[in-house]
Amino acid sequence: MYAQMIKSTGQGVKSLDEMEPEERAFQERIDAGGKIEPKDWMPEGYRKNLIRQIGQHAHSEIVGQLPEGNWITRAPTLERKAILLAKVQDEAGHGLYLYCAAETLGVTRDDLTRDLLSGKMKYSSIFNYPTLTWADMGAVGWLVDGAAIMNQVPLQRTSYGPYARAMVRICKEESFHQRQGFDIMMKMANGTEAQHKMAQDALNRFWFPSLMMFGPSDAESVHSAQSMAWKIKMNTNDELRQKFVDQTAPQAAYLGLTIPDDTLKLNEETGHYTFAEPDWEEFFDVLKGNGPCNTERLEARNKAWDEGRWVREGLIAHAEKKRSRKMAAE
Amino acid sequence: MSSPESSPYNEDDASPHGETRKTEWPLWEVFIRGQHGLSHRHVGSLHAADAEMAIKNARDVYTRRNEGVSIWTVRASDIAASSPEEKGSLYEPANDKVYRHPTFFDIPDEVGAM
Hints:
The structure holds two protein chains of two kinds. Chain A is mainly alpha-helical. Chain A is about 65% helix and about 0% strand.
C-alpha cells in the first residue's frame, strides 16, 4: 500500500483489563466508533505509529508524482497532457493533506521531509519502478491508483479524525485518477496492434509490483494486530489484495489483456480468484533501496529541496520585511 | 485543526529540530465558503510565508474543483481553542435543558403547522 510495513509498538495488543484507566477509555472510544482528535489524550505508541504511517503515505503521494511527471511533456494529445497535469497536481495536494494531518500529531512537515530525503522514512515500493511508455500512464492510474483506493476507502473510517478527513478528500479525487488510467488503457488496448502490445507490456510490468503494494501477508503480524485494534489499519493486507484481484481480473478481460499469471483462476465456489504471490524477495530488495529507480527518485527529491532553498528563505525574508515595514508605518 | 499540542516528536524518529525551523513557513488554517450561502468551513491547513501566499496556496490546494467562492486563512498560532478536558463543564449544562428544543412542546394537531 502507500504505507507498507509500518511498525507499531511490537508489544502485542493489550486487553482492556491490562490497560490504565486513561488508555482503556481511549480504546473503548475507538471500539465504539468514536474519533480521536489532535488535543485528545492518546498512547505514545498510537501517535508514533500514526506519524510513521501518515508520513509514509504523504511521501508516497509526493514521490508518486515523479513517474507520471515523466510523461507530461510527452503526452500524446493536448487533452491528455492537461488531464495528466491535473492528476499530478492532485497528488501534490494529497501529499499536502496528509502532511497536515501528520502535523496535528506534533511533527513538522520539514521534519518529515528531512527523513524522506535522508532515506530514513520510506515511500511505497511501487514508485521505484520506471514508466517506460505512454501505456504505463494507463497502467499506473488503473492498477496503482486502483490498489491505493482499496486501502484508502476503508481508511475514511479510521479512528484519527484528521487522517480520516484527509482520506475523504483524497478518495473523492482518486476515483478520477483510476478512471483516467482505465480510459488510457481502453484506448491503447483497442488501438493499433502496436498500441495493444504496449498496453499488454505495461500490464505485464505493473501487475506484480501492484500486488506488492499491499505488503506481504500480515495475518500473523503483531504490528498489524495493534494497528487494527487502534483502527488505523482497517483490513489485512491479504484481504485487500484479494479484493483488488477480484475487481481487476474482469476489467483486464474487458480490455482484452492478459494478466501475467498462468495460475489466475476464478474459484466458482468462493467467487474469488486464486492467484500467484508476487516475488517477496524483490519487494524487500526494493524497500532496501535496490529497486530500478530508488536512487533516481531520492536524488530528484533532494535536488528539488536543495534548489528550492533560496525560494523558501527568500519568501520568508520578504514576508518579514513586509511585516516590519507595516509595523513601522503604524 | 492543526495544533501540535502533544509532546514533542522525539529524536528517535526525526532529525533534531534545528536549522529548518528558521526557514519553515508558518502554518495557516484554511476556511472555505461553498457556493450555496453556507458559512466558511474549516477544510485543512497549509504552510505559507505570508497571508497573500496562504490564500494563493489555499486556492490551489482546496478549490481545484469549484469547492468554494471565498477563502479565509488564519495563522494556526492565532487560534484559541477549547481543551478536551473542559468538555464536561462546557457542554454538560446543556444536557438537562431539553426545553431549548422545539420538540419539547406538544402543540395540538388542530392548531396546525407551527
